[in-house]
């Protein structure tokens, strides 16, 4: 490819990606189920659990349940948007032959997926901003002042979103239909939330459930975010008296690669019965 042709192709790809991103964002915001069950759920749970248990201290350092709960809800929001919502929306697009029609257009597959990923990042960032705002305004959650903690937030968010997104795309092809998506994925996400220290303090969960949760990304995503929003001393209250950030990065990166490989091998543009 010559330099001239590259120059002509890049803007076209960027323009198509931007157009696709706008379409994906409009579809998400206009979908009532997506807005309630994906975007609003973590916010509603933060308000509910924070109002009931928010003032309870869970450690000798004075960490309240609301402060512990905030990073868990942020992690859940990333999983809802990147994994559950994406898998369900792609499965629905496939059932309605939308994917087949998109595949027949000049839109590159990379632009289609880039539009999806940008939509996931946008929704996640808006949701996180809302959660932090509510946590600070209503439950007096303290935000970190150390720039290093916000750097940790950035890489945990990016790796967590990357892992969730690739797993969501991979899962969309493993579902037989969009009707089965909610029935299958909702219990899976709930199980991971209860075993990963989102709704319950992680060290109060039975040990065998802790080991089960360690296999999956949500536990490490929540723990990585706790290292940002909780005082440093709280690391000694964690299961291994450490934030284990290198392990968190390793597990999240491993799931990102697994999701990417499975997506590349299994993704299909047509319904299973079209073969």
TrEMBL record:
It holds the Pfam family ABC2_membrane. Its main location: membrane. The keyword Lipid biosynthesis does not apply. Residues 33-270 form the ABC transmembrane type-2 domain. It is a multi-pass membrane protein. Belongs to the ABC-2 integral membrane protein family. This is Transport permease protein.
